[in-house]
Structures are given as C-alpha cells and as structure tokens.
Amino acid sequence: MKAFALVALALLLSSFASAQAGAALNAAASAVVVVAGDCSTDTTKCRQAVSSYLPAGDGHDKAVVLAMKALGRVRYDFGANSGEFEPLAGDGSADCSSFVQGIVKESFGARVPRTAEEQYAATVPVRLGNQQAGDLIFFKNTYKPGISHVGIVVDNCRFIQASRPTVKWGNYCTGYYRNHFAAIHRVQYGV
Prior knowledge:
six-stranded antiparallel beta sheet, endopeptidase fold (from Nostoc punctiforme), three-stranded mixed beta sheet, disordered N terminus, globular, alpha+beta, 9 strands, 7 helices, single chain
C-alpha cells in the first residue's frame, strides 16, 4: 500500500509543473492530500507519505515535497540563516526567508537573496491564477511596512511557511493572509 501511495503521489506531483489553470492546480493538490492524508491537520502523516519520495522533475515538484517534509519539524527562528535548515532532512530552524532560500537552493539549484524583500525583487511576478505549486508567495505589512513574509505555494489557496512555532500551512484566500497578500513570483533557474 505504501508503494502504491508513493507512486500515486509521484504521478500527482508531476502534474503540478504542467498545471496551467488554477482549477487543475487545485485538483492536483487536493489529490495529493487524499494520498498523503489530510496534511493540513496531520503533519506527521503528510511527512511520512513524502519522506522517501523526491521527484526527479523540475524544481517545483521538489520544492513542495521538501516544504511538506518540514511541516511541524523545522522550528521558527527569526533571523536564522539557511545554514541552520536542512531541506533534505526537514530539520533545523529557519525564519520565512531562510526557509524559502534553503528550499529554492535544494529544489532549483538556484540562489535567492536572504530576505523576503530581496527575494521579491529577485524573482519574476506570476499572475494570480497562473501560479504553480512551488512558486513563492509574498505578503506585505505583516510585521513591518512593505514585503515582509514569504512562503511556498502548494495550491490555489494553501502555502507552506516558516512561522511560529514551526513550519506550517497557511491559507492565502481568507483571513489574515488574504488581507496581507502581495504577489506570487517564480524563481528563474537554468538561465
């Protein structure tokens, strides 16, 4: 059963990279939750489902898997640098931007700057509705004016972020994050 779940997860995650329409992205992400369990409420089950799977496709798939591995395990530490976070192990500590910096380096083989504000400036805007799982999502005016928070897009409303007390899910379609949403950007790699 575990092997079947991992194969199904591999097939579903590979569809993320090619999903162009928001509905297709949301459907694919929902299917991953069915395979991996309800990851938004059971992070242990989610981590177990993706623990031995690392996709060979483009960096977007890998970014989501690595972010899921960190759920509930990587401690939030404001000002932590990316050297304190081990993406492949899903261990250590990170703040939002060092978490994204580590995921991007491991997933895309690309380097992005250290802060959310610098990452925003160094990546390419994506129109809402054209986002892919693994894109970066930015928020403004969270603890300071301007771009101040970043996470990894999972589907049309959910993202994974480093926030107190550990890496966790967020929803950018409602509440706090909807009110602070700034933009979705894509990492340029292989250029």
